[in-house]
Amino acid sequence: MKRFLKITSAVLSAMMLSASPFSVSANAATVKSNFSQAVKASARADEETAYKNVEKYLSDGNQFEYSIGRPFDTDFGEYMVFPAYYTNVEYPIMLISRRLRGYIFESDKGYVPSNFACLAVNIQTGEVFTIENAILDGLVDADKFYKYYNDNKDGLRKMFRMNLIGDFDYDGRLSVKDATELQKSLVYEYDLNAPDLKGDDITDVNFDGNTNVLDVTEIQKIIVR
Q1: Sheet (strand 66-68) strand order
Q2: Is residue 84 classed exposed, middle or buried when 0-12, 13-18 and 19+ CB atoms within 10 A define those classes?
Q3: What is the pLDDT of residues 155-180, one digit of tens each?
Q4: How confident is the model at residue 40 (pLDDT cuts 50, 70, 90)?
Q5: Quick check: 135 and 101 in contact, CB under 8 A?
Q6: What's the CA gap between 27 and 148, in Å, rounded?
Q7: Is the pLDDT reported for residue 46 higher than 80?
Q8: What SS3 class is residue 179?
Q9: For 90-147, how does the pLDDT look when each residue is reduced to its tens digit (9 = 90+)?
Q10: Tens digits of per-residue pLDDT, 58-101?
């Protein structure tokens, strides 16, 4: 009887040890660590493949030298965005601006192949697009891109600037203040259509080629939507 009790006690002790919360936690931590490493390895492989596709896109059929940076550290779904452009092209100093899905992109140089020095590559297919085409076609979410730009604009301003159309005070959102500031500028006859403003402009909210009271009204409409 004593022998039976001793064996049973040993078995129970072993069962309790194997089922202890500490053991379960340790196993879960190991699984989590392995999963995390696998995800990181997969991300590195995706980045390497995407980089090679951008490199092929830039080098295919020409002798231009190019620069490719690390991809933007944010989730754009099926796409990665790389800062990339030709380096041995003589870029004219001129303001280039494009209106893309509610935002104005500006650059002081007309980078090639993207005016704004960024390329988007599909992780699955390897297709490469200029950032302007990727945003215009909805391949890269404009709002996510704008958030990333705002979080990293100190570095990105060297290549391009991105602003919300109608954001006259440049605080990242449309408000009554923008309408008021634009109205003041019109009252004081500040020349918002000066010759040096080429292409699209942040104050031309209704996109009619001019900046006037109709743009103030358009901002007000957007605010109350």
Answers
A1: 66-68, 79-86, 118-122, 128-130
A2: buried
A3: 999 899 998 888 877 777 777 887 77
A4: low
A5: yes
A6: 37
A7: yes
A8: helix
A9: 777 778 888 888 898 999 888 999 999 999 999 999 999 999 999 999 999 999 999 9
A10: 998 787 899 999 999 999 999 999 999 999 887 777 788 888 88
CA 47 to chain centre: 15
**Pair of tokens at residue 124:** 């699955």
Main-chain phi, psi angles of 220, to 5 degrees: -60, -40
Q: Is 6 exposed, middle or buried (0-12, 13-18, 19+ CB in 10 A)?
A: exposed
Phi, psi of 62 (to 5 degrees): -150, 170
Strands (DSSP E) found in 87-138: 93-100, 103-109, 118-122, 128-130
Cis previous bond, 113, omega within 30: yes
Neighbour-count burial of 54, counting CB atoms closer than 10 A to its CB (0-12 exposed, 13-18 middle, 19+ buried): buried
Q: Token pair of 82, please?
A: 């790389």
CA distance 192 to 122: 39
Question: Which residue's entry shows tokens 């999963």?
Answer: 35
